[in-house]
Amino acid sequence: MAIDYREWRDGDDLALLEIWGDPDTAQARQFRGALAPSSNGTNGTPWRRCIVAEDVVDGVGIPVAAGVVYEASLHPERLWAYVEVARDHRRTGIGATLLTMLRREAADAPSGVSRLRAKVEPGTAGAAFAEAFGLKPIQRSRLVVVEPGALKLPVFPDKDYGGRPVSGENAGSDVVMDLATGSVELTDVVGRYYTSVHAWDSPGVLSVGQVQKLFLDELTGAHGAIVLRAQPESAFGAGVAPGKKGRIRAFAVSYAAPADPDAAPHMDNQGTEPSGREAPTDVFVGHEPSLPADDAAEAVRDILALIAYQHPVMLELDDSMAALRAAVEPLLESGKARLAAAETLVVSD
Ligand SMILES: CC(C)(COP(=O)(O)OP(=O)(O)OC[C@H]1O[C@@H](n2cnc3c(N)ncnc32)[C@H](O)[C@@H]1OP(=O)(O)O)[C@@H](O)C(=O)NCCC(=O)NCCS
């Protein structure tokens, strides 16, 4: 077998798709999209090096494998890397050669960043390959569905902070509120929460505009948000109606189902799962990062109870999200929540 290595060219994606067939994992599905012509990082495209391996038969090269390494403006401290080899060419060292070549390219990345990072699924060839090359897990991420009614609804006081009685249905109305996804207050807490739970791979400095673009604007599918606030306090002490709302303790942003079932393989575009169960709504749940751990856990549990009261919700649970883990892991153990997909490991050198 003679293998040649060359730069990625337009058209390689189609040739490789034919040879590769369906992706092994959700991560492979996602990262195939990163295979694209190399770029020096000018004209707004990120720096990227993409290499193809061809099996040369009778002087004709047929693409069988590819690897890519590229910079990302979000989480700039590492470069993303991905390698894929046709099944009938695996375990012959092609993956290893591609990774070695990518590492050499990474050493010349203009940002000076050369550490690699990849996503793999535990127990797969990709995970074994990463381990063999010293890429160690730096985070585990799970996609979790919380079943309706899994958590008890929080009980809100029947008096507001000014001491005035509130009728049953209005209890909590000064702490649970809808907020527009364009809200500056929401954007601020979402950005700071995201940064705080990514200390293991810093997202860099996030501007208000970036937070909006990543999590809250129309293109993300965000269509609503609720927040749980601290009880408002009056500057004049208890008994005097407070003039200001309490600060946000926790937030939940919900997203519309993507029309493309590839992007959400757990459901069809009619909003049901293949099993016939009601498809969960994607949500992003977080808290004010400066809250003490106990308070954060309580706030996250309460907001999750509210949003998952009647309908299932799906959220990404990283091991770094301590408050969310405290709420969700007992539900996973008791069967009131389930994994929607295999776990993902982010591995890095
Ligand atoms: C992961 C992948 C790229 C490996 O490609 P490959 O050409 O088979 O890898 P190599 O032959 O160079 O293997 C190098 C070493 O990795 C390890 N390895 C690779 N595949 C393995 C497997 N299925 N089981 C256990 N170890 C494995 C071994 O240590 C191997 O050395 P050895 O063959 O001498 O034992 C290939 O399996 C693939 O395309 N998987 C799907 C895509 C993917 O998951 N990519 C990983 C993201 S970076």
Write up what this structure looks like:
Helix content is 25%, strand content 26%. It has helices at 12-20, 26-32, 94-106, 125-132, 184-196, 208-216, 293-307, 322-334; strands at residues 2-7, 48-57, 60-70, 79-85, 116-120, 136-146, 176-179, 222-229, 248-255, 281-287, 313-318, 337-339, 344-348. Strands 1, 2, 3, 4, 5, 6, 7, 8, 9, 10, 11, 12 and 13 form a 13-stranded mixed beta sheet that branches. Helix 5 packs across helix 6 and helix 7 (293-307) packs across helix 8 (322-334). Coenzyme A binds at residues 24-25, 28, 81-85, 90-96, 118, 120, 124-126, 128-130, 132.
List key phrases describing it:
8 helices; 349 residues; elongated; binds coenzyme A; 13-stranded mixed beta sheet; 26% strand; Aminopeptidase; alpha+beta; 13 strands
Mean pLDDT: 91
User: How do the helices and strands follow one another from N- to C-terminus?
Assistant: EHHEEEHEHEEHHEEEHEHEE
Q: Under the CATH scheme, which architecture of the largest domain would be assigned?
A: 3-Layer(aba) Sandwich
What separation lies between the terminal Cα atoms? Answer: 31 Å
Number of helices, where a helix is a run of at least 4 consecutive DSSP H or I residues: 8
CATH topology of the largest domain, by name, is Aminopeptidase
Radius of gyration computed on alpha carbons: 24 Å
Instruction: List all distinct small molecules, including ions and cofactors, that are bound in this structure.
Output: coenzyme A
**How is the main sheet built?**
13 strands, mixed
Output the structural class: alpha+beta
The first-level CATH class of the largest domain is given as Alpha Beta
Q: Can you tell me the residue ranges where pLDDT is under 50 for at least 5 consecutive residues? A: 263-270
Instruction: Provide the helix percentage.
Output: 10-25%
Number of strands: 13
Number of domains: 2
β-strand percent reads 25-35%
* Shape label: elongated
